[in-house]
Specification:
2 strands; two-stranded parallel ribbon; 5 helices
Length: about 110
């Protein structure tokens, strides 16, 4: 694995503020990583010192094996969930938000 990408991913995860979340895809995009799966791999292998609880799946849910702990840690940071899902529109980290086009693309 490219050490530079590894460190960029770690740096972006560290930068997610308390009370905010990002998706694996958000972090991959910000770090210019080839895949959101790489973000998950880094969190699994080298994420013990990172705020891992702030990284969610694209639909705002947690990895099943981390769900209870992750939701509890997020709750303690002021991030609520509804049936195990975080509202990304409200709690997504501002730096991870993608610019919405002013108007939808037309046919011509």
């Amino acid at each position: 694995m490219d050490e530079e990408i590894h460190e960029r991913i770690r740096d972006f995860i560290k930068a997610i503020p308390r009370g905010r979340v990002a998706t694996y895809g958000d972090i991959a995009d910000l770090a210019k990583a080839p895949s959101p799966r790489l973000v998950g791999r880094i969190l699994n292998e080298d994420g013990h010192d990172l705020p891992w609880q702030r990284v969610l799946k694209a639909d705002g849910t947690c990895a099943p094996h981390l769900r209870d702990t992750q939701l509890q840690l997020l709750h303690e940071e002021g991030v609520p969930n509804l049936d195990g899902k975080v509202n990304l529109r409200e709690y997504r980290w501002e730096d991870a938000r993608k610019e919405e086009p002013a108007e939808p693309p037309g046919l011509w």
